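My hope is that you will study the protein record below before we discuss the fold together.
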Amino acid sequence: MVHLIWAGLACTGIIYALFNGTMLEVNEAIFTSAQEAVQLVIGLTSVLIFWLGIMKIAEKANILVALSRFFKPLIAWLFPDLPEDHPVMGYITSNFIANLFGLGNAATPLGLKAMNEMKNLEQSEHASRSMITFLVINTAGLTLIPTTVIALRIQYGSTAPTETVAATIIVSLITTFIAIMIDRLFYYRRVNQKK
């Protein structure tokens, strides 16, 4: 549906430009935007490749295993209905770690694997408690190092590209905490309504 909305907006803009006599400006904007988009993708890809390399090194050095053990009590508390020794816990932890380092795009495949494993465990057409909690935490966007934002600020010539890190940490901690509390509130409310 979203692609239809975007296509409709683009067509409306082009038709309006034809009747308004501003087709030259639209053409210039299209080609300028396309060039900027390619440069942006190349810049973000290099940062993503760097951090994926760091994650691979951390995986080979068993740092991810140590982090998984460190976060295991928290993950078990957040997802009490999942078996503690199931591979889904590893996917969830890896997804959270990738998000902590601001690797949203790299965290997506891990998140999809985690969701698929949770769906297989539940074997239901409805989202389980764990699936909802996982989605809520991912949507809240807990990030310690906002690599994408830093890369964008560097690419657009910021003199202090890392000055937003402290604010990002504070805001992401607050939003994640509130998201978890709201998730728990709605869960317990649903449980009480079923009684």
